[in-house]
Batch of 2 targets.
Target 1
Amino acid sequence: MDDLDALREKLEELKQQHRELDAEIARLASEQSGDQLQMQRLKRRKLMLKDQMTALNGRIIPDIIA
């Protein structure tokens, strides 16, 4: 497995975690007594994952100046 494959695998892991956080946030939002502090923490973590995914995408598909 080369570096590119490892990056793609890591990107897929991050995407899966992002989807799981999204589902957890939706579940908390639907609850009447949803913990707002927990929801904020999950949203912050979701944004951090999004940043990591963007960085990995940039390494997998580098910018090409035409």
Target 2
Amino acid sequence: MIEILLLILLFASVSVNVFLLITLKKLFSQVDILEDWIINFKKSVENTFNKLKDVDNRGIFEKDDDVGFLFSDLKQIIESLNKKVKEEETDNV
């Protein structure tokens, strides 16, 4: 009787472990996808900022009150993303 109970508990334990392993694998895959998305988004923002800097090569728009906020906002976004990516890289090391 005890053997049957132990066999049932062993089967339940194996089933739960397999379920947790599959779930963990899916979560790691999702983390990789989100990490790639963040890196691509960061590159996109940097490219946009660089294109804006090329258009405004004399700094006229950057110093303008009406348009200058765009440059400062983009710069803050890039700095924030750089900081978060660097923190992630140091955490992984």
